[in-house]
């Protein structure tokens, strides 16, 4: 792969192209039946990978498990991501 | 041209003034302090129009230099020893970001023990940073190489930073006659820097110095290697231009009586001036010796060195640095690039210890009758 001189980036938004979900070991799975819509997962997610519909963007979720830890009703399980 | 008597730091400062950098972030350190002072005087007197930034550390000096250079302007800084060590991590960023910064570097020993006197461990420790390194033997050469360094560093096919090293105190503080070129000549040799790659331009926005992953990292590092290799011919071309305009001749190496020499002393910087005098003296006593001084340490001029030493059987490397247990860096470089010669390493003059004629005669004796490969001259060695 060739790079530009000095490895500069000439198109903005490269963090969107550069999907970091592959770093994940554990994957959060939301159980919407248990969910009480407290928004904790949405607020605490350090990557902004959960929306207010409580859907997870697996392209960017790194599997840190903070959402699962902060969920008051244990609606988010962490499973090994194969 | 005006001939003046001045120290090497004054000669370098004159070169900087003539090169007209747009930004100079600098943090003074012995024995390079006077470069920061002379340049400050030029700015205060209106002789040099530049953004002179008094930073709070060398780490900041180099960081500011990268920031400035990344806007596509000519950038200079100067440091020495612990200051250079403090810049260490940022030096790699400068090379990787292809920021053609030029830096004056006074070679001074590294703590501990704390010592302000000369050796070359400081710049040798930056060997793998991706910077070009030139070692001058006096003030005149330091002036000439500083101007040349800008021309080579800013070449669109190179875009690597360059440091011009001079031996602390031995050269920095020695008064010598220096030919200071006219501004008009320098302007012809070194036109304003017109950046082509890797710089910030509001009309053409890019991100510089970004994060990357393994898809791009190795290619970017390889590009530095390619540029470093290519710089040999760019330096040669620049030195040809230099000779045409200023009349003084320089090369990536300097040789003295190497053609018929059986033993050749190889070193960097001021030690070679002492050796050169002794080569004549030794030859009067029947010793077939020669001297080779490496002016451009990075890029390493392997072909020129091999050609210059082809008739010799033994090489005595004299160097002011050590990779403990493995000899000096120059010794290792020569072992990598030179075949069929007996190469013996001499660690000498660390922390400003005088390199006397008798020390060099000891090097000669130990090269003729070697007992080991890595020798420390001037200390009581233990087996």
Explain the layout of strands and helices:
The complex is a heterodimer of chains A (82) and B (383).
Chain A: H1 14-17, E1 26-30, H2 40-44, H3 66-70, E2 76-80
Antiparallel strand pairs in A: 1-2
Chain B: E1 2-7, H1 8-19, E2 23-26, H2 33-45, E3 51-54, H3 58-69, E4 76-80, H4 81-96, E5 102-107, H5 121-124, E6 132-135, H6 139-153, E7 162-167, E8 175-180, H7 183-189, H8 217-246, E9 253-256, E10 263-267, H9 271-284, E11 289-294, E12 296-298, H10 302-308, E13 314-319, H11 329-337, E14 342-347, H12 357-368, E15 374-376
Parallel strand pairs in B: 2-3, 4-5, 5-7, 6-7, 10-11, 10-13, 13-14, 14-15
Antiparallel strand pairs in B: 1-8, 6-12, 9-11
Structure overview:
The complex is a heterodimer of chains A (about 80) and B (about 375). Chain A is α+β, with helices and mostly antiparallel strands and about 80 residues long. Chain A is built from 3 helices and 2 strands; from the N terminus they run αβααβ. Chain A has helices at about 15, 40-45, 65-70, and strands at about 25-30, 75-80. Chain A has a two-stranded antiparallel ribbon with strand order 1-2. Chain B is α/β, with parallel strands linked by helices. Chain B has 12 helices and 15 strands. Chain B has a 6-stranded mixed β-sheet, sandwiched between helices. Chain B is globular and about 65 Å long. The termini of chain B are far apart. At the A-B interface, loops of A face α8 of B.
